[in-house]
Backbone:
């Protein structure tokens, strides 16, 4: 199982669910200790088997982004989100909470929605990374039309993340996608302007249009 | 210039009145509520919707420039401390560090106050340098709670001044003889209501990218609600003429009242750009945003409401305070504005605390004030055994809200679904309904100018320095100019958010549409006149007889017709460039303020204390609605922020240190998709007069009544009054336990 799958397991929220965070940190982890919980969750036993030391300096990696191999140099501590936004200038994914809470940085990793702020760029090597820029130009056309038609945005800052969560749900459920499915798919996407009802309408409309 | 009189029909819903207004001879004829419009008021979609939804839109946070460097402040972890030393030398030699400066703050008065700033080549290097920077503080006594700050001997926030400010009059001012009215009241209720501090939590944090060019001109890409305010502040800070400062805000990720002028982050970005000669970005991180990005002051509102047993409200008195942080004043609660109560006396005062300063937040004073007012009205109705909706309707003189109450009541099923005996549902999961009203001033004005150019190929470009917070400013401008020219909204290009265009208003107070729509009408009209003139010449007709509709031009009495684009080819090679200036308002209007009311349907689990809002019916008015689809988005947003304020949002400070303990989006909860109720938006049709478009603002009124409606619904569900926001499970359980104890 890939790391991306690990993070999605049991989660409909576009990333590591808070339930998983708490589970891995033990019942004693209170809300104030979430940071500690997160670091526990990322210590993966299977990774130790072929331990590869990278850094602390920058290392060259090759990322497959939107179907294109991109050779770049990143510090091992850099998140996939920052790597996509800075050297690659794919700024659709937004940095909002930077800790997996808001979903504004949702991308697809091996076809599954993940929070790019919770993935290290070096860990994304060998995986299929798709950003909204890649999805919109291909299978996301109907969803884009639906987002515009239903006005599923206001300031628009959360919108690419919402879009990617919806796109994954539409791809998975097809025409059978219900409003409850869309709601679950976007449960990890926060919007401050309050655009949720129109996002749900757009997702359902796009699924029907497919 | 001469004037002319125009007959105008204004109104809301089915209620209209005919007035005669006087306008400048050459001004656009005002649109009445009976105007037949082809674009304005139809279901147009957002003109920049695809750019936003596809991720192509570049926000301030997304802008990159060659040689970009990063800046950030070191911030005090103490609420009150003397800055003893800052170890700048140790970080100056660190990898990538371009500059490290002291901000020369000797004493800090809130946790999060900036004391030093660093600029570095990369964000990682910046993080390393900030982590390595040693700042030595001498902690001083502090107070962060508005009630504790009033105690004798509490640490002073502003030297020489008491923490509690001078009591001032509440909104609406004193009226009548409150003492006599209280003595004469047949029934009265008194209670204390509390609301918590809410942070704006804009998803795009405050910040900017500043860059000086070789000529010393400054460009700032800013996340702002007021491009002009940033330009003017920056000119002052940088000692530059405004002509050498350019501010660009093509897209911005939320403001809600918190983004005017320069913040600390912006000032540091400018300063570092100046000293390093590099473009410098400083966007707040999430913790900085919670600490310093802005907040709605809290409130403690002690209110007494009296009246007659027939439901007539006669007297409202009270004392209210709250903290707007380490400044003076700024805290108030608009708790006297909805009903026609003849005797009033409300004293308000702000309390200084060692906390970050509050900022205007979507309808400042209103959600908290209306929560208290509409709660005490509900309590009064309960005391006299009347339906709380009947009490409201009896005392409400607002010309539009009076029409809105029955519409909302019908849609929520008030008669069928309200629990006649609050809390009477069997079992632990109880349901109830509540309602509340709201209001907002009809602001907006100014002499703003909008430019329109028309090319010989029919291209139409509208420009203004105004910014779009997400409310749909671009769409509004496109719709109005398209209307004037008889073309489609897609045929109009709107360029805004740049101070190189004509100055535009800041977007605060729900003024944007009402400030720019009348100017856009004038500009559109002048463009139409310009095109009509050349066509009229060819057709040998009076330009006034040239009609523009459906992308075509026709003229009375001539068998000629052409497309808008073809007509434009007759323009000179310079095309057409016109301006429209906002005419001054005429006096006649249907309502002097927005009404608005909301009805909430909630479920409360009395075993867990969890409140769920099932549905909200939101009935609102804003005169003419230019883009109904976008307006519904905005009302949805107002309701959702209101639900969030009612149930979730609370800035929590550690009293021992004064720092915020929940400065993240997982610990400071905002309403999420799973918490979001079904929302039924009703927009009252009509036109309000006053300006040539008949518009009013909508952003703020939409969030005013929600929390009060939810709280009243919770009472109807459980029979116990929740007098403090947010209504958390712990507070529900405590209130239920207290009620049970009291009943013994």
Residues:
């Amino acid at each position: 199982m890939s790391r991306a799958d690990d993070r999605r397991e049991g989660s409909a929220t576009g990333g590591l669910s808070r339930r998983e965070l708490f589970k891995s940190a033990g019942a004693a982890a209170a809300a104030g200790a979430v940071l500690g919980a997160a670091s526990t969750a990322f210590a993966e036993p299977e990774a130790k088997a072929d331990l590869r030391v990278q850094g602390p300096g920058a290392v060259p990696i090759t990322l497959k982004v939107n179907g294109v191999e991109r050779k770049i140099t990143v510090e091992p501590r850099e998140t996939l989100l920052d790597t996509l936004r800075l050297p690659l200038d794919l700024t659709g994914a937004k940095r909002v909470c930077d800790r997996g809470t808001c979903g504004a940085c949702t991308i697809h990793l091996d076809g599954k929605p993940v929070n790019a702020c919770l993935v290290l760029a070096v860990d994304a090597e060998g995986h299929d990374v798709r950003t909204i820029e890649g999805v919109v130009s291909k299978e996301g056309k109907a969803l884009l039309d639906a987002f515009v038609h239903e006005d599923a945005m206001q300031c628009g800052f959360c919108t690419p993340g919402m879009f990617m969560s919806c796109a994954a749900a539409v791809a998975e459920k097809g025409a059978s996608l219900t409003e409850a499915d869309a709601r679950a798919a976007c449960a990890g996407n926060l919007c401050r302007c309050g655009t949720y009802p129109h996002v749900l309408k757009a997702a359902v409309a796009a699924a029907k249009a497919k | 210039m001469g004037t002319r009189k125009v007959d105008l029909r204004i109104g809301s819903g089915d209620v209209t009145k005919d007035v005669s207004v006087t306008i400048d001879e050459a001004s656009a004829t005002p649109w009445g509520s009976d105007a037949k419009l082809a674009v304005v008021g139809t279901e147009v979609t957002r003109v920049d919707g695809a750019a936003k939804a596809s991720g192509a839109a570049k926000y301030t946070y997304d802008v990159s420039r060659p040689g970009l460097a990063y800046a950030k402040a070191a911030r005090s972890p103490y609420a009150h401390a003397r800055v003893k030393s800052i170890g700048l030398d140790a970080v100056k030699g660190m990898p990538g560090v371009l500059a490290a400066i002291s901000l020369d703050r000797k004493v800090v008065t809130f946790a999060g106050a900036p004391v030093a700033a660093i600029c570095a080549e990369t964000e990682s290097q910046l993080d390393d340098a900030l982590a390595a920077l040693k700042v030595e503080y001498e902690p001083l006594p502090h107070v962060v709670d508005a009630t504790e700050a009033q105690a004798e001997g509490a640490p002073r926030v502003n030297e020489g001044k008491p923490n509690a400010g001078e009591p001032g009059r509440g909104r609406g001012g004193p009226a009548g003889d409150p003492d006599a009215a209280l003595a004469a009241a047949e029934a009265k209720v008194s209670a204390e209501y509390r609301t918590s501090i809410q942070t704006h939590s804009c998803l795009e944090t405050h910040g900017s990218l500043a860059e000086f060019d070789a000529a010393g001109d400054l460009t700032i890409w800013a996340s702002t609600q007021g491009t002009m305010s940033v330009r003017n502040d920056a000119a002052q800070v940088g000692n530059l003429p405004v002509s050498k400062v350019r501010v660009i805000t093509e897209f911005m990720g939320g403001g809600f009242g918190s983004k005017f002028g320069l913040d600390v982050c912006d000032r540091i970005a400018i300063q570092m750009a100046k000293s390093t000669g590099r473009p410098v970005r400083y966007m707040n991180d999430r913790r900085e945003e919670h600490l310093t990005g802005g907040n709605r002051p809290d409130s403690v509102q002690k209110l007494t409401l009296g009246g007659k047993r027939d439901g007539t409200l006669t007297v409202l008195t009270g004392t209210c305070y709250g903290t707007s942080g380490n400044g003076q004043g700024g805290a108030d609660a608009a708790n006297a504005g909805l009903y026609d109560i003849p005797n009033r006396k409300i004293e308000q005062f702000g309390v200084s605390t060692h906390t970050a300063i509050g900022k205007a937040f979507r309808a400042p004073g209103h959600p908290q004030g209306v929560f208290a007012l509409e709660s005490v009205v509900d309590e009064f109705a309960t005391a006299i055994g009347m339906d709380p909706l009947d009490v409201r309707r009896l005392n409400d003189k607002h010309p539009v809200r009076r029409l809105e109450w029955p519409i909302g009541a019908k849609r929520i099923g008030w008669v069928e679904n309200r629990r006649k005996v609050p809390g009477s549902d069997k079992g632990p999961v109880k349901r109830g309904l509540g309602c509340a009203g709201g209001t907002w001033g009809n602001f907006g004005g100014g002499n703003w100018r909008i430019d329109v150019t028309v090319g010989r190929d029919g291209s139409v470009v509208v420009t203004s320095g105004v910014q779009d917070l997400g409310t749909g400013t671009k769409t509004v401008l496109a719709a109005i100019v398209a209307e004037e020219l008889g073309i489609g909204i897609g045929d109009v290009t709107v360029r805004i958010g740049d101070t190189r265009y004509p100055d535009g208003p800041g977007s605060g107070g729900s003024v944007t549409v009402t400030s720019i729509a009348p100017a856009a009408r004038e500009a559109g009209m002048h463009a139409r006149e310009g095109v009509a003139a050349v066509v009229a010449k060819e057709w040998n007709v009076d330009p006034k007889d040239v009609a523009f509709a459906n992308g075509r031009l026709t003229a009375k009495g001539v068998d000629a017709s052409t497309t808008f684009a073809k007509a434009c080819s007759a323009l000179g090679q310079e095309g057409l460039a016109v301006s429209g200036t906002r005419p001054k308002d005429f006096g006649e209007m249907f309502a002097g303020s927005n009404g608005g009311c909301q009805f909430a349907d909630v479920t409360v689990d009395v075993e867990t204390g969890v409140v769920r809002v099932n549905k909200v019916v939101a009935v609102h008015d804003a005169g003419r609605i230019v883009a109904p689809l976008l307006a519904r988005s905005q009302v949805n947003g107002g309701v959702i922020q209101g639900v969030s304020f009612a149930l979730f949002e609370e800035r929590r400070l550690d009293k021992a240190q004064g720092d915020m303990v929940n400065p993240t989006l997982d610990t400071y909860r905002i309403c999420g998709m799973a918490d979001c109720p079904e929302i039924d938006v009703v927009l009252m049709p009509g036109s309000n007069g006053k300006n040539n478009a008949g518009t009013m603002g909508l952003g703020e009124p939409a969030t005013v009544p929600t929390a009060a409606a939810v709280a009243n619904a919770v009472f109807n569900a459980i029979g116990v009054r929740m007098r403090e926001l947010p209504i958390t499970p712990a507070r529900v359980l405590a209130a239920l336990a207290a009620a049970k104890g009291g009943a013994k």
Q: What stands out?
A: The two ends of chain A are 30 Å apart (CA to CA). The CA atoms of residues 150 and 202 of chain A lie 6 Å apart.
